[in-house]
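We examine the record.

___
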Amino acid sequence: MDISFNCDKCGQHIVIDRAGAGQAVNCPKCGKSLTVPAAVAVPPRIPPIPANSAIPHQSPRPPVVVTTGNDLAGHEITQYLGIVRGIVVRIAGLKSGFSGVLTGLGKLSSGGNIPEWAAVCEAARQEAHSLMLTHASELGADAIIAVRYDATNFGEGSTEILAYGTAVRTKKV
């Protein structure tokens, strides 16, 4: 199993054999020195399309605005397009699960954070968010309002992460 992660400077997607966990590597794009994380998959970074660039057979579109509010300051909602969502189901891998248990046992008395599990959760939230944005873009949305996240545990060690909101079209006022 490979470790997949992104450079925090340039966003370059990097894939390293899992034996490289914890080792230093240089980003092939920008050269930044990075530490290979534990075996936690991060979805590839999809660069945003600049507002002034054209996609073949499509008109240029600015990025979708996301808010937890029920409206968008400075904009009037002209059309409600419906609920959009991104759903990800994750199960802790053997390595991150085992090392998370060991880390957690050491922190039982202090109630501390378990970084291995936090990394898995954050990667799942990012992927669910990205899927929600894709769904909204497919509907032609300008924004997603009333965004929420939800997580449900089911099965042995598996968790569903859901990002959802209401896709809308807007105009500046």
Notes: The chain has two helices and eight strands. The longest strand covers residues 75-91. Residues 1-37 form one domain. The beta strands are 2-6, 13-17, 24-26, 33-35, 65-66, 75-91, 143-154, 158-172.
